[in-house]
Amino acid sequence: MKKQILLMAFTSAILGFSSGSQAANMISTQELLQDCKGTNGTFITCEIYGQAVYDTYLVTRTPKGPKFICVNQPAPTRKEIIQEYVNWAEANTKYATDPAADTILRFLAGRFPCGK
After folding, report:
1. Ramachandran region of residue 38, left (φ > 0), alpha (ψ -120 to 50) or beta?
2. pTM of the entire predicted model
3. Counting CB atoms within 10 angstroms of each CB, which of 1, 21, 83, 110 has the fewest?
Protein backbone atom coordinates (compact mmCIF):
# COMPACT_ATOMS: atom_id res chain seq x y z
CA MET A 1 0.00 0.00 0.00
CA LYS A 2 2.80 2.41 0.87
CA LYS A 3 4.47 1.58 -2.44
CA GLN A 4 1.31 2.48 -4.39
CA ILE A 5 0.86 5.75 -2.51
CA LEU A 6 4.50 6.67 -3.10
CA LEU A 7 4.20 5.82 -6.80
CA MET A 8 1.03 7.89 -7.17
CA ALA A 9 2.66 10.84 -5.41
CA PHE A 10 5.75 10.51 -7.61
CA THR A 11 3.64 10.30 -10.78
CA SER A 12 1.63 13.33 -9.74
CA ALA A 13 4.80 15.30 -9.07
CA ILE A 14 6.23 14.37 -12.46
CA LEU A 15 3.05 15.35 -14.27
CA GLY A 16 2.96 18.65 -12.41
CA PHE A 17 -0.25 18.01 -10.50
CA SER A 18 -0.90 19.11 -6.98
CA SER A 19 -4.14 18.89 -5.08
CA GLY A 20 -4.73 22.64 -5.29
CA SER A 21 -3.80 23.25 -8.91
CA GLN A 22 -4.61 20.05 -10.78
CA ALA A 23 -7.12 21.69 -13.11
CA ALA A 24 -4.71 24.49 -13.99
CA ASN A 25 -1.87 22.09 -14.88
CA MET A 26 -3.67 19.25 -16.61
CA ILE A 27 -3.46 18.71 -20.35
CA SER A 28 -6.89 18.56 -21.92
CA THR A 29 -8.00 16.01 -24.45
CA GLN A 30 -8.15 18.63 -27.21
CA GLU A 31 -4.60 19.75 -26.38
CA LEU A 32 -3.31 16.19 -26.55
CA LEU A 33 -5.13 15.63 -29.85
CA GLN A 34 -3.09 18.45 -31.38
CA ASP A 35 0.07 16.54 -30.46
CA CYS A 36 -1.39 13.24 -31.67
CA LYS A 37 -2.18 14.84 -35.02
CA GLY A 38 1.24 16.51 -35.14
CA THR A 39 -0.34 19.98 -35.24
CA ASN A 40 0.81 21.43 -31.94
CA GLY A 41 3.98 19.53 -31.29
CA THR A 42 5.43 16.26 -32.29
CA PHE A 43 3.73 12.90 -32.52
CA ILE A 44 6.27 11.51 -30.04
CA THR A 45 4.73 13.70 -27.32
CA CYS A 46 1.44 11.89 -27.85
CA GLU A 47 3.13 8.49 -27.78
CA ILE A 48 5.04 9.23 -24.57
CA TYR A 49 2.03 10.73 -22.80
CA GLY A 50 -0.26 7.86 -23.75
CA GLN A 51 2.30 5.23 -22.75
CA ALA A 52 2.87 6.97 -19.41
CA VAL A 53 -0.87 6.98 -18.66
CA TYR A 54 -1.19 3.29 -19.54
CA ASP A 55 1.95 2.31 -17.59
CA THR A 56 0.68 4.22 -14.55
CA TYR A 57 -2.63 2.33 -14.81
CA LEU A 58 -0.74 -0.98 -14.90
CA VAL A 59 1.44 -0.30 -11.86
CA THR A 60 -1.27 1.23 -9.70
CA ARG A 61 -4.01 -1.36 -10.12
CA THR A 62 -4.23 -3.80 -7.27
CA PRO A 63 -3.95 -7.55 -7.85
CA LYS A 64 -7.31 -8.22 -6.18
CA GLY A 65 -9.05 -5.12 -7.50
CA PRO A 66 -11.10 -4.80 -10.64
CA LYS A 67 -9.35 -4.58 -13.98
CA PHE A 68 -10.79 -2.31 -16.62
CA ILE A 69 -8.27 -2.63 -19.44
CA CYS A 70 -7.14 -6.02 -20.75
CA VAL A 71 -5.02 -5.94 -23.90
CA ASN A 72 -4.85 -9.31 -25.63
CA GLN A 73 -1.73 -10.28 -27.51
CA PRO A 74 -0.76 -9.71 -30.17
CA ALA A 75 -1.73 -6.12 -29.51
CA PRO A 76 -2.24 -3.53 -32.23
CA THR A 77 0.67 -1.16 -32.80
CA ARG A 78 0.94 1.99 -30.72
CA LYS A 79 0.33 4.11 -33.83
CA GLU A 80 -2.86 2.17 -34.62
CA ILE A 81 -4.14 2.69 -31.07
CA ILE A 82 -3.31 6.40 -31.18
CA GLN A 83 -5.21 6.80 -34.44
CA GLU A 84 -8.18 4.96 -32.93
CA TYR A 85 -7.97 7.26 -29.87
CA VAL A 86 -7.93 10.35 -32.11
CA ASN A 87 -10.99 9.06 -33.98
CA TRP A 88 -12.74 8.25 -30.70
CA ALA A 89 -11.96 11.66 -29.18
CA GLU A 90 -13.16 13.48 -32.31
CA ALA A 91 -16.40 11.50 -32.19
CA ASN A 92 -16.80 12.21 -28.44
CA THR A 93 -16.28 15.97 -28.32
CA LYS A 94 -18.11 16.20 -25.00
CA TYR A 95 -14.78 15.11 -23.44
CA ALA A 96 -12.66 17.75 -25.24
CA THR A 97 -11.93 19.76 -22.10
CA ASP A 98 -11.58 16.74 -19.81
CA PRO A 99 -8.11 15.67 -18.68
CA ALA A 100 -6.38 13.72 -21.43
CA ALA A 101 -5.36 10.99 -18.97
CA ASP A 102 -9.03 10.39 -18.14
CA THR A 103 -10.08 10.08 -21.76
CA ILE A 104 -7.16 7.82 -22.63
CA LEU A 105 -8.23 5.41 -19.88
CA ARG A 106 -11.90 5.75 -20.88
CA PHE A 107 -11.01 4.93 -24.50
CA LEU A 108 -8.75 1.99 -23.57
CA ALA A 109 -11.40 0.51 -21.26
CA GLY A 110 -13.90 0.59 -24.13
CA ARG A 111 -11.41 -0.67 -26.71
CA PHE A 112 -9.89 -3.41 -24.54
CA PRO A 113 -12.57 -4.42 -22.03
CA CYS A 114 -11.83 -7.22 -19.61
CA GLY A 115 -13.79 -10.45 -19.69
CA LYS A 116 -15.44 -9.83 -23.04
Report:
1. left
2. 0.75
3. 1
